[in-house]
Design brief:
heterodimer, A: alpha+beta, Rossmann fold, 20 strands, 37% strand, B: MetI-like fold, two-stranded antiparallel sheet, 14 helices, 2 strands, 2% strand, binds adenosine-5'-triphosphate, binds magnesium ion
């Protein structure tokens, strides 16, 4: 990866008396697709707005290409934003909305024309030039908002849940489109979402946030396979999270059952969180596995069945392509490297 | 059925206060009463208006109303903008609006004549204004009983009607739209000319209609500020109605003014239509 394009150093942000961002350290590289992932209210938009220049950090600094951004007004920053609530200009039609930034840069009308048309094609809204904003559907407005930002070919594009209003099919299409645009145009994307699937498909780097703090930064595969704590594991996909005790290296005890694992470096008898993905659990006949239980419910999910298995009060979530009848006795097997041990947070 | 009965008071109100007076005005406008007391149809009340003297009075009235509107915009827009900006900032922080707008609205609750007399003490030859000017060693201004005074009085009296609609449009503009403009490279000046001003045009337009029409028809202001030497169309109508033989001509004048008001509203509507997209906002 290239040099650091944006760098957050010990950034805190306080509104009135509430700390919205707590000591954020983060760097974003050139041409990187970085996703901020976290539940509603965790400070994703605030972080984005600090990059865009609509909020100043309460303390700490943000550097852009090595220069401190402090005091640089939003209109002088080389970033463009796709706003969470579109924020299109209601008094301008689609064409003039998209051309807004180009007009301000005083480009010639021919150049503006060709750029606007190209970007309209990119977002699949050819022929919408003279439509008014009020006459567009939510999804169309969102695509115009993307077009309006991307047409300026900024160094960094900030996207605040840009696909939230689209239906599944269109969203998946746009995810691909955005990813392609990012690669082709060589723009750095800082992308906000609370949809972990979207984050996993699109990103080079995922930043998982919780209540104003960063929980983990890493590649999608790393975050999925090696979540740092139970919170990340839970947020990044469906998981079974259960308390356990680390007997010694490579042996963990859950529900009075000793299980082999591959984790080391814990104190003897340290209490830990054990995370197991639903697709890593195998269902066997009652006497074959170490953990026994009763099938409580079965739901068809398309590719697999989602089953809840009650084992002495703990409900295991299990994905399997085979179906077991409700009420039947089963046992569960997990391979050692599919057991993820995490320090209690 | 129930709904229908409820609307009867409304009907009575309409007949009593709208239809009956209108009917009388139309009746007077198209008739003359001869010595014997019989009515006869005529258009001469309207013909009379087309004498140069009366045309000039209408022209003068329009001119003064126009000047008043222009000054109301020049003074009222910045006032509305300043108050709205402060209130927006406070509302964004979760606080209440400043209530500065009330400062502009409050004088309207005071008696008109009282307010106008206050101006007299300011504008008269040895009034507050001239004392102040002479204190600074500047020459005296003799504004009272001139056209300037009439415009000043009209602007003073009607400026709340310009400030309020502009304020209420400005306060509603979405912050994120302004941020979007900044994000796309627009500095403060650009944001104003390219986003805020166009978005507030509906407020300006309704301000114009709310000032222009009353300014055109008012008579007490010009009466007071010109000492009665300045005849505007409102005064002319008033004078004619005070005199029993004049009410036919007065009614005709009222109708002409009404047509004129209608036309100017229509022009504003067409103007507003070119900003149609804003209505959707
Ligand atoms: N201008 C403000 N004044 C006061 N509090 C604010 C302000 N802006 C944001 N907050 C608070 O900061 C917290 C984080 O807000 P933020 O918009 O960054 O969340 P988010 O992660 O983008 O959530 P969502 O996914 O719902 O958009 C919230 O609790 C919010 O109420
Ligand atoms: Mg947000």
């Amino acid at each position: 990866m290239g040099k650091h394009l944006i760098e957050f150093k010990n950034v805190c942000k306080t509104f009135d008396d509430t700390e919205v961002l707590k000591n954020i350290n983060l760097h974003i590289d050139e041409n990187e697709f970085l996703t901020l992932l976290g539940p509603s209210g965790c400070g994703k938009s605030t972080l984005l707005r600090i990059i865009a220049g609509f909020e100043e950090p309460t303390s700490g600094s943000v550097c852009f290409e090595g220069a401190d951004l402090c005091g640089v007004p939003a209109y002088e920053r080389k970033v463009n934003t796709v706003f969470q609530r579109y924020a299109l200009f209601p008094h301008l039609d689609v064409y003039d909305n998209i051309a807004f930034g180009l007009h301000i840069k005083k480009l010639g009308s021919k150049e503006i024309d060709s750029k606007v048309r190209r970007v309209l094609e990119l977002v699949n809204l050819k022929g919408f030039e003279r439509r008014t904003i009020g006459s567009l559907s939510g999804g169309q407005q969102q695509r115009i908002a993307i077009a309006r930002a991307i047409v300026n070919e900024p160094k960094v594009l900030l996207l605040d849940e840009p696909l939230a209003a689209l239906d599944l099919k269109l969203r998946q299409g746009m995810q691909l489109e955005l990813k392609n645009m990012q690669r082709e145009l060589g723009i750095t994307f800082v992308y906000v979402t609370h949809d972990q699937e979207e984050a996993l498909t699109m990103s080079d780097t995922i930043v998982v946030m919780k209540e104003g703090t960063i929980q983990q930064i890493g590649k999608p595969t790393d975050i999925y396979n090696e979540p740092k704590n139970a919170y990340v594991a839970d947020f990044i996909g469906e998981s079974n999270i259960i308390s356990g005790i680390m007997k010694h290296d490579c042996l963990v005890n859950i529900m009075d059952t000793d299980l082999e694992c591959v984790d080391t470096g814990f104190a003897p008898d340290e209490s830990v969180d054990v995370v197991i993905r639903p697709e890593d659990i195998y269902i066997l006949d009652p006497d074959k596995g170490k953990i026994t239980g009763v099938v409580e419910s079965v739901t068809f999910k398309g590719v697999h069945y989602e089953m809840v298995i009650d084992s002495n009060g703990f409900k295991w979530l299990v994905h399997d392509t085979a179906k077991y009848e409700v009420g039947s006795d089963v046992s569960l097997l997990v391979k050692p490297f599919d057991i993820h041990i995490m320090k209690k947070s | 059925m129930f709904k229908k009965t409820l609307s009867y008071p409304h009907l009575v109100w309409m007949v009593l206060f709208v239809i009956a007076p209108m009917f009388l005005i139309f009746l007077y406008a198209f008739t003359v009463t001869d010595d014997g007391g019989t009515l006869s149809f005529t258009l001469e009340n309207f013909a009379k208006f087309f004498e140069p003297m009366y045309i000039k009075i209408l022209f003068n009235s329009v001119w003064i109303a126009f000047l008043s509107v222009v000054f109301c915009i020049i003074l009222g827009y910045p006032a509305a903008k300043i108050i709205a900006d402060r209130d927006r900032r406070r509302i964004a922080m979760g606080k209440k609006a400043t209530g500065l707008l009330m400062l502009f609205v409050m004088p309207m609750w005071m008696n008109v004549m009282l307010r106008l007399y206050a101006w007299l003490t300011i504008l008269q030859p040895d009034g507050v204004l001239n004392s102040f000017l002479s204190l600074l060693g500047l020459p005296k201004l003799d504004i009272m009983y001139t056209q300037t005074a009439v415009v000043l009085g009209t602007v003073y009296d009607f400026i709340p009607f310009m400030i309020m609609p502009i304020y209420s449009v400005l306060i509603k503009i979405d912050d994120s739209v302004i941020e979007a403009a900044q994000d796309l490279g627009a500095n403060k000046t650009r944001v104003f000319w390219k986003v805020i001003l166009p978005l507030s045009m509906p407020g300006v337009v309704s301000g114009i209609t709310m000032v222009f029409l009353p300014a055109l028809t008012s008579f007490y202001i010009s009466d007071f500020f010109s000492g009665g030497q300045f005849m505007l169309i409102g005064n002319l109508i008033e004078k004619n109605f005070k005199n029993p033989v004049g009410r036919n001509f007065g009614s005709a004048l009222s109708i002409i003014l009404m047509i004129f008001a209608f036309l100017s509203m229509h022009v504003m509507k067409i103007f507003n239509k070119s900003n149609r997209q804003m209505d959707m906002y």
